[in-house]
Design goal:
mainly alpha, 3 strands, 3-stranded antiparallel sheet, 12 helices, 307 residues, 2 domains
């Protein structure tokens, strides 16, 4: 669905003009434009409280600094804030070039991210195994829920990507799944692990058909919604005896973390996850903290051949 189909309620006409510019002239992906819209809406709502009766392009740097301080107090870190500031800078530059603002008060403004990056929530290998074992496959509904868990953990899909999968996206011959519209509208192909492939094949034979949603509701045959997936994951975690909160995103993080722990190349993980570059995958580097020491300890300094 295009960004224009997410237009209600509308923002200020100048903001809507900027979003149209991003979509039609700058040729930004619809997902990117939705992110920018979300940022501009959220900041506009905050500024209505902090600096009422003044649009974003008429605010001073001090107004934005007050907003940043509020975001900091709410727990937002530098990386997220810098992304928001990038969205704001782009809009303010557009307002300046269109003659609506005297200057871009956020030009070249950046936040130094001096805080430690928070490690993503993930499961241990043992917890992941427990989770899968807690998903029986006695009934069609149970088999569908088990496939949901296996695809989230075994393929690292985002929740929306999982919900959007269709029967024709599964290539049983090549044992892979096509993600048609990942984040940023980027396509990617994800290979199926052996166990996931075997169980998915059985599910497909039972599911029947050649087109339509891969995972559908039992009553109306509609695609599963994100809330359904979240409920399935929470219920599976409860059955597995995992007391902390487990989300679909935690299973995606577990997929990347466990691959990295097995020394899979960062560039490969980035491609499997649908990241723009390996740098985006750096959030999972916490699993590497002991690897440099293990690596240097393998050096043979006695004069023998290095193996």
């Amino acid at each position: 669905m295009s960004e224009r189909n997410h237009r209600q309620p509308s923002l200020d006409p100048l903001i809507e003009g900027y979003l149209d510019y991003l979509l039609d002239v700058a040729r930004k992906a619809s997902g990117t434009v939705r992110d920018v819209r979300c940022t501009l809406r959220r900041v506009s709502e905050a500024m209505e409280r902090l600096a009422p009766d003044r649009p974003l392009w008429k605010l001073e740097l001090l107004d934005y600094l007050r907003w940043i301080e509020g975001e900091r107090q709410a727990g937002r870190v530098g990386a997220g804030l810098n992304k928001n500031l990038s969205h704001l800078r782009g809009f303010l530059d557009y307002a300046w070039r269109s003659g609506r603002a005297d200057r871009n008060v956020l030009d070249h403004f950046q936040i130094k991210d001096d805080g430690k990056r928070k490690e993503p929530e993930s499961l241990s290998i043992e917890e992941a195994v427990q989770l899968v074992k807690a998903c029986p496959a006695s009934t069609p509904m149970q088999r569908r829920e088990r496939i949901v868990i296996l695809l989230l953990y075994g393929c690292g899909f985002r929740t929306k990507e999982l919900c959007d999968l269709r029967l024709q996206d599964v290539d049983t011959t090549r044992r892979e799944v096509l993600v048609r519209a990942g984040k940023g509208d980027r396509q990617r192909i994800v290979p199926l692990p052996e166990m996931v492939y075997t169980e998915l094949l059985a599910y497909l034979l039972e599911r029947g058909g050649k087109r339509g949603p891969l995972l559908r509701t039992e009553k109306f045959g509609k695609p599963l919604a994100a809330k359904h997936v979240c409920e399935m994951v929470c219920q599976a975690a409860e059955r597995a005896g995992i007391t902390r909160e487990v989300t679909p995103k935690a299973l995606r993080h577990s997929y990347a973390t466990h691959l990295m722990d097995r020394e899979v190349d960062l560039a490969i993980i980035a491609r499997l996850m649908g990241h723009r570059s390996p740098a985006e995958t750096g959030v999972y580097l916490h699993v590497l903290k002991d690897r440099p020491r293990r690596a240097v300890n393998r050096l043979d300094l006695s004069g023998g051949d290095a193996r």
